[in-house]
Amino acid sequence: MTDDIRDVSDLALDDIVTPYTVEGLSTRGRVARLGPALDAILKRHDYPPAVNKLVAEAATLAVLLGSSLKEQGRFQLQTQSDGPVSMVLVDFDAPSNLRALARFDAKAVARAARGEDLLGKGYLAFTIEPDGLTSRYQGVVELDGRGLESAAGGYFERSEQIPTLTRLAVGQTLTATGPNWRAGGLIAQFLPESEARRRQADLDPGDAPEGFAPDDVPEDDAWTEAKALAVTAEDHELLDPRLSSERLLYRLFHERGVRVFSPTPLADVCRCSAERVDAMLHSFSASERQAMVGDDGMIGVTCDFCSVKRIFDPRDYKA
Description:
CATH topology of the largest domain: Hsp33 domain
CATH superfamily of the largest domain: Hsp33 domain
Mean pLDDT: 89
CATH architecture of the largest domain: 3-Layer(bab) Sandwich
Low-confidence stretches: none
Number of strands: 14
Distance between the termini: 56 Å
Strand content: 25-35%
Radius of gyration: 22 Å
């Protein structure tokens, strides 16, 4: 942990998530920087650029939220919608491992105008599966065409009652090997010790009688200031491979004093294995396995996440 952020090295690092706190504004959050790990995931799938951008945003958001798990566990982000991209699925295995995929209509994506929302109407779901005996938890929020940043903020406002601001940025940098994908993100949350300071105005119920006046709850001044500072993080700052997370946080919050904590590395790691696939094949009936046999007489199984293909002999399952 570093108390005086001005003494932190300017060395920029990729594939990390860095927690921080601004105690003077009762605000905590994290900064994520994704480089080679994200680039490997996207190039493996070879999606159209617009789909790559959406998957990168989803992966960054999953890292920002999943890295808050205090113990090892699984955080999953999933969208289901009627848009050109019908599904995006990101698995984050705390504390470090990341994988992602998308399902989409290639013709509809090609027809979509530049900058058009590819998700359409649907929902965004967050699923937390902690290790151990803790119960599985899922939160769901509507997708209304305003993107993942807005949906995440709406989820925390409605479901968690935690004032939250999220920033996501995706781009490409030119290197000696060609263009490489990278992404950056920042989340800020207002978490004062007093629950009363976290109160928000009631949401419009939609069927209130005429003359109904909802409670007027003014926004806390500290959160107003924190949001005003955090929102100034520009896309190029979140993406700049030469700008460290510590230096970015100093730019945003130095007047109020920001404390940065040790970063956690991120990696492109899939959960699949030969043992898992073998166990899955054993769970199928003989007729189901027979339907999987290819022209070569073998069963081939390809992981949708990492594209690794494994070959199995159906004779090993006859017993």
